[in-house]
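Fold it.
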Amino acid sequence: MVLLLFGIGLPAKIAFGAIHGVIPVAIFTMNACRAVPPVLLKTAAVLRLSPADRIRSILLPSALPMVLTGVRLGFSLTLIGTILGEMFGSQSGLGYLLMTSIGLQNTEVIMAVTVLLIAFAAVVSTALLSWERSLRRDRGQ
């Protein structure tokens, strides 16, 4: 369906990635906003904070660790979606190289691309996880 809408090329890659990654981020963000402790919201009302101050002082610090969890999961799914988009709807990129190598039974290139993708995903996921843990540690969770 995506290929019919966006054709072959960069727009299809972006669409595949966005479809896979936006939903977890949105779900985690909504749940993070719902999980803000009611006592903080009541305190903001008592202090008569403006909506912008409530967002800056209460909502963002409370929700950010959970939002980062969604970003971490969304990143993984976006990477998978982009690779899938390149495999089936592109004429360049690592997914295309992987599919071409599979067709030619070129084991060295298959393994090299796979290791490269795993290393990239591990580095970014570890960085996001450490950032999330530091935010949680700062909040005392």
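The mean pLDDT is 85.
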